[in-house]
């Protein structure tokens, strides 16, 4: 079983021993409720670094809906087992008081990419994401940090933050892991009803099959899906929908000619 560390003092002692030994650190930040997508990040880190650290912290500052925060699955014991099986050496699980000693008076904000798509529909979300990632990067001091492409807008913002603040951590993007029917793996999928789970694959199908974002949005609406947005950004088509009162996001690569 991997080590479970919950205090800053214990973590800093562990980290300093690792770095003093000349070992590299691979980092996978999560909010828990681990699934195969998370495990793929851990396996990638295991292949490329000496010490693999997985954080499990349900970050309250990135939830603009308190009900969403309350409903988010909390499965630390199971997460620890899954992380160990995938190759994690340490699970870092600090409390809110540990990570927010200032009560969230200080935060990281971005003024462009964070203002549309997810940012438009979840005010303050990316402030919370960037702030907690910066805190964790400063604590863990990873050589490489692993993020899934499912949260593509988040990935781009984190890459931009690393560049803007001259951080030494290399951000490694890992392709989205999907169910056999195409649904992107997500901790939120467990909240879907049986009927909602049967309907959910139409989201990815239409993002992929339709020629334009407008056509994908229209097709999903005709399927009775509540669409928050579908937009083309650079070489990606990104979308967010609500099925069974569960919010799902996804993105697919598109050709520049579309």
CATH class category of the largest domain: Alpha Beta
State the strand order across the main sheet.
1-4-3-2-5-6
Give me the Rg, rounded: 18 Å
Low-confidence stretches: none
CATH homologous superfamily caption of the largest domain: HUPs
Strand content: 15-25%
- The helix tally amounts to 11
User: Helix/strand/pairing class, anyone?
Assistant: alpha/beta
Main pleated sheet: 6 strands, parallel
Instruction: Please report the distance between the alpha carbons of the first and last residues.
Output: 48 Å
CATH architecture of the largest domain: 3-Layer(aba) Sandwich
- Give the rounded overall mean pLDDT: 96
Amount of helix: 40-55%
Shape, per Cα inertia axes: globular
* CATH topology assignment of the largest domain: Rossmann fold
Order of helices and strands: EHEHEHHEHHHEHEHHHEEE
- Total discrete domains: 2
Give the number of DSSP strands.
9
Describe the structure.
This protein is an alpha/beta fold. It has 2 domains: 172 residues, Rossmann fold (3-Layer(aba) Sandwich); 66 residues, Pantoate--beta-alanine Ligase, Chain: A,domain 2. It is 41% helix and 20% strand. It contains 11 helices and 9 strands. The strands form 2 sheets. It has a 6-stranded parallel β-sheet, sandwiched between helices. It has a 3-stranded antiparallel β-sheet with strand order 7-8-9, covered by helices on one side. Helix 7 crosses helix 8 and helix 10 runs antiparallel to helix 11. The protein is globular, with a radius of gyration of 18 Å. The relative contact order is 0.13.
């Amino acid at each position: 079983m991997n080590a479970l560390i919950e205090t800053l003092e214990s973590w800093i002692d562990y980290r300093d021993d690792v770095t003093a030994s000349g070992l590299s650190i691979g980092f996978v930040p999560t909010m828990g409720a681990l699934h195969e997508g998370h495990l793929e990040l851990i396996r990638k880190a295991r292949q490329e670094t000496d010490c693999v650290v997985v954080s499990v912290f349900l970050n309250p500052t990135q939830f603009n809906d308190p009900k969403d925060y309350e409903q988010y699955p909390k499965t630390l014991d199971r997460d620890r087992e899954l992380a160990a099986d995938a190759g994690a050496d340490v699970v870092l699980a600090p409390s809110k008081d540990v990570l927010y000693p200032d009560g969230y008076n200080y935060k990281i904000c971005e003024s462009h990419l964070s203002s549309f798509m997810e940012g438009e529909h979840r005010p303050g979300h990316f402030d919370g994401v960037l702030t907690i990632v910066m805190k964790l990067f400063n604590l863990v001091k990873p050589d490489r940090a692993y993020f899934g492409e499912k949260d593509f807008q988040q990935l781009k913002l984190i890459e931009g933050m690393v560049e803007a603040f001259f951080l030494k951590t290399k951000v490694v993007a890992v392709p989205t892991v999907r169910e056999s029917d195409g649904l992107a793996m997500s901790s939120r999928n467990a909240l879907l009803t049986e009927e909602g789970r049967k309907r959910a694959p139409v989201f990815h199908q239409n993002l992929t099959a339709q020629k334009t974002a407008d056509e994908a949005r229209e097709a999903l609406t005709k399927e009775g899906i509540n669409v928050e947005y579908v937009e083309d950004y650079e070489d990606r088509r990104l979308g967010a929908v609500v099925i069974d009162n569960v919010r799902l996001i996804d993105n697919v690569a598109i050709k520049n000619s579309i």
